[in-house]
Amino acid sequence: MQVDIGAILTGYAQGYFLMADEETGSLAWYGTEQHALIPLDERFHCPRSLRPLVRGSCFQVRINGAFEQVVEGCAARPQTWISSELKQIYLALHQAGFAHSFETWQGDTLAGGILGIALGAAFIGESMFYRIPNASKVALVKLVEHLRERGFRLFDAQLMNPHLARFGAFLMDGRDYQELLQQCLRIPCRFD
């Protein structure tokens, strides 16, 4: 399959995201009137019960150590929007330096991870998974720390859910989101 990296990046740079229909597998661009953002400032909240795991040595963090395994982990659900075509797109974006995996490990075991796309100072979180309890939560906290250190200004989680709300996620309307996204696209940041 030939992937048009430029066209894919243009879609993300306009605030859209790709999803496959769970039943047909057909891929389409989706937009939302409000984007769920993970704050990269003092509004981010690490739940108290998670803090010992974040500070401890239970999980080790790696970047892009097992990208394809993270994609597979994110797709391994009874109903998934990550089709085989979308997996190939993620791999092409990864090979081009735009898609990344942020992983938690226990020894040689991939415990969990987050899949996302970095464009300028924006990180668009596509999906996350875990195989060991709390692994994806620790990955989220450590990813926020990493993005802060690298100068990122936007962590787009796309759609709100109660899990993200526990970490301080908030909704931003489309117009404000577009303005922030366009600012971030002009700021060079290196993810890894």
Structure write-up:
35% of the residues lie in helices and 28% in strands. It has one domain (5-185): 3-Layer(aba) Sandwich (Aminopeptidase), CATH 3.40.630.70. Helix 3 runs antiparallel to helix 4. A hairpin with a 2-residue loop joins strand 5 and strand 6. It has a seven-stranded mixed sheet, sandwiched between helices. It has a two-stranded antiparallel sheet with strand order 1-2. With 192 residues, it is an alpha+beta fold. It is globular.
Measured between the Cα atoms of the first and last residue, the distance is 27 Å
What are the secondary-structure elements, in order, as H or E? HEEEHEHHEEEHEHEH
CATH homologous superfamily designation: Leucyl/phenylalanyl-tRNA-protein transferase, C-terminal domain
Q: Class in CATH?
A: Alpha Beta
Number of domains: 1
Q: What assembly state would you assign to the polypeptide chains in this entry? A: single chain
Strand content: 25-35%
Question: Topology of this structure?
Answer:
Blueprint: H1 5-13, E1 17-20, E2 27-30, E3 34-37, H2 51-55, E4 60-63, H3 67-75, H4 84-95, E5 99-106, E6 109-119, E7 122-130, H5 135-150, E8 154-158, H6 162-165, E9 170-173, H7 174-185
Parallel strand pairs: 7-8
Antiparallel strand pairs: 1-2, 3-8, 3-9, 4-5, 5-6, 6-7
